[in-house]
From TrEMBL:
Organism whose genome encodes this protein: Streptomyces oceani
Keyword annotations of the record: Multifunctional enzyme, Phosphopantetheine, Phosphoprotein, Transferase
GO molecular function, one term: oxidoreductase activity
Protein name: Enoyl reductase (ER) domain-containing protein
SMART domains, sorted: PKS_ER
Domain Enoyl reductase (ER): 255-560
Entry-linked InterPro entries: ADH-like_N, ER, GroES-like_sf, NAD(P)-bd_dom_sf, PKS_dehydratase_sf, PKS_NRPS_Biosynth_Enz, Quin_OxRdtase/zeta-crystal_CS, SpnB-like_Rossmann
UniProt-listed Pfam families: ADH_N, ADH_zinc_N_2, SpnB_Rossmann
Residues covered by region (Disordered): 84-109
Domain of life: Bacteria
BP term (GO), one: fatty acid biosynthetic process
Length: 569
């Protein structure tokens, strides 16, 4: 060939495998123009494989270097246009598509779409993969062999086979293998198969008919939202931290999450003052305040990150309760970093069985709810509370605390997340949409027109007005949001029988924060409270994590993991 050029495979035809298990191969190439034929045999001359035709194309190093940087694509699961994920009309009860465990129960004549559910088997590990794929292969073969189904499409339903977003967790390897098998069957038999992966929530079950009607070969349902796989250019390259601990993630002045950068930070390695400890951060919680800071919408010296978990690597003077090596969780500024300096009073030791990720999702969510409901609102047993955004970290914590304190709970959330709110203990008829102000009429109807004693708010605009309208005489409105803080005097003038209080958790002070956190940890450790679900991201992907939160795609908490760095500085 010509210097600087290489011949790369372009098209294959007539590829056949005759045998397997050979330890050495002999390959015979027969050139013919721009293509070659291949004959592959083992050491005894027994045929192993053959290729009727392999077309080659010349490719130079210059062509490779000239390829555009955005030529790479990846699969991204997008929300289907017009997906009935929230307020759109759902399939009425009784009209849900019929599902089957196998083909024996399919009626005659067969419907246009036959839905079969593939449940995980009892086996684990490699045996589970084999069990699932053998069952799927048997099903596919019977489907293709039975003339009754010639005009029908087999729709296979799985649970957890695909990861459509970080909040999905790890995929089921056995069911993921089934998807690969059925994809091949669909390629060889176009129009005969489809795959739908669900999360088994009530909202997704109600949206199943929508997914089937969509006609896609592959789709997924997450909390009632239909998602479709599409090729997209990959997200920007991850941040590249330097060696050592003297860095943190920070804003760069541009109002874009993609403009976040790793910057040098001497704060984490400075000399410790009285009552301070140095913590090697292993995980950091993400809050909506971080999204606002990341977008450059906050004036002042706000830094990214305010909570996390890690290991104490150094202690300053007058620190008696913590020692080097203690695993701790709590509040500290600049948490999107491998090393921070924190006030010892705002930290507590983690229970041994807790992971750093689980611990990092506790402080802000539970302490914000605790401080707002107990300290500021004075919520008491027998009273009632309306918790907005009840599927978020603070909302889930507030629901749990209120129920533990014997309080009647009403809640709002995106309809696609109602299952999570109900699972947290709120009665279905007391969960309302956070997308409209209809919750006001629902709350008043449920309380006989009286309203609720307390509102824990994070919404804005007309939702604030509607929430003030549902407060009972003597009610307390506690505002934890940052985007629509009202003037207290004006609120009192318009609603003389209620109180209005906006707050920031930091105002509680380190001593009170430590007290609340110790109480929360005790309740979690005893099983009275439960950890919120967590979506985990590497800190190098922090722009994606903040964007994920800004789009309200998460349930519970978003947590960043940090690289492990050295000890005492």
């Amino acid at each position: 060939g010509t210097a600087g050029w290489a011949a790369l495979p372009f098209a294959w035809r007539g590829v056949r495998l005759h045998a397997s298990g050979a330890r050495e191969l002999r390959v015979r190439l027969t050139p013919s123009g721009d293509r070659v034929a291949l004959s592959v045999a083992d050491g005894t001359g027994t045929p192993v494989a053959s290729v009727e035709s392999l077309v080659l194309r010349p490719f130079s190093a210059g062509q490779l270097s000239a390829a555009p940087a955005d030529a790479l694509f990846e699969v991204e699961w997008i929300v289907a246009p017009g997906s009935a994920s929230d307020e759109a009309t759902r399939t009425p009860d009784g009209a849900l598509p019929e599902t089957h465990r196998d083909l024996s129960t399919v009626p005659e004549p067969a419907p246009e779409d036959v839905l079969v559910t593939l449940e995980p088997g009892e086996a684990t590990g490699p045996a589970a993969v084999r069990e699932a794929t053998v069952r799927a292969l048997t099903l596919v073969r019977r489907w293709l062999e039975d003339e009754r189904f010639d005009a029908s499409r087999l729709v296979l339903l799985t649970r957890g086979a695909m990861v459509t977003s970080p909040g999905d967790g790890a995929p089921d390897p056995a069911l993921a293998a089934v998807w690969g098998l059925v994809r091949t069957a669909e390629t060889e038999n176009p129009g005969r198969f489809a795959l739908i992966d669900t999360d088994a929530t009530d909202a997704s079950h109600a949206a199943l008919a929508e997914a089937v009607r969509n006609g896609e070969r592959e789709s997924a349902l997450r909390r009632g939202q239909l998602r479709l796989p599409r090729l997209a250019r990959p997200t920007p390259a991850p941040l590249v931290p330097p060696e050592g601990a003297s860095w943190r993630v920070d804003v760069t002045g541009s109002r874009s999450l993609d403009a976040l950068a790793v910057v040098e930070s001497a704060e984490a390695v400075r000399e410790l003052g009285a009552g301070e400890v140095r913590v090697a951060v292993r995980a950091a919680g993400v809050n909506f305040h971080d999204v606002v800071v990341g977008l450059g919408l906050v004036d002042g010296e706000s830094v990214l990150g305010s909570e996390g978990a890690g290991v104490v690597v150094d202690t300053g003077p007058e620190v008696a309760d913590l020692r080097v090596g203690d695993r701790v969780t709590g509040l500290f500024p600049g948490a999107f970093a491998p090393m921070v300096v924190a006030e010892a009073r705002a930290l507590v030791r983690m229970p041994e069985e807790w992971s750093f990720v689980a611990a990092a999702g506790v402080p802000v969510a539970f302490m914000t709810a605790y401080y707002g409901l107990a300290d500021l609102a004075g919520l008491r047993r027998g009273e009632s509370v309306l918790v907005h955004s009840a599927a978020g970290g603070v909302g889930m914590a507030a629901v749990q605390l209120a129920r533990e304190w014997g309080v009647e709970v009403f809640a709002t959330a995106s309809p696609s997340k109602w299952d999570q709110v109900v699972a947290g203990g709120v009665r279905r008829e007391r969960v309302f949409s956070s997308r409209t102000t209809d919750f006001a009429a629902g709350v008043l109807a449920a309380t006989g027109g009286r309203g609720v004693d307390v509102v824990l708010n994070s919404l804005a605009g007309e939702f604030v007005d509607a929430s003030l309208d549902v407060l009972a005489c003597g009610g307390r409105f506690v505002e934890m949001g940052k985007t629509d803080i009202r003037d207290g005097e004006r609120v009192r003038a318009a609603y003389p029988d209620v109180s209005y209080r906006a707050f920031d958790l930091a105002e509680a002070g380190p001593a009170r924060l430590g007290e609340m956190l110790r109480d929360v940890v005790r309740l979690l450790e005893s099983g009275v409270l439960r950890h919120p679900p967590v979506s985990v991201w590497d800190v190098r992907r922090v722009p994606e994590a903040l964007r994920f939160m800004s789009q309200a795609r998460h349930v519970g908490k978003v947590v960043l993991t940090m690289p492990v760095v050295g000890g005492r500085v």
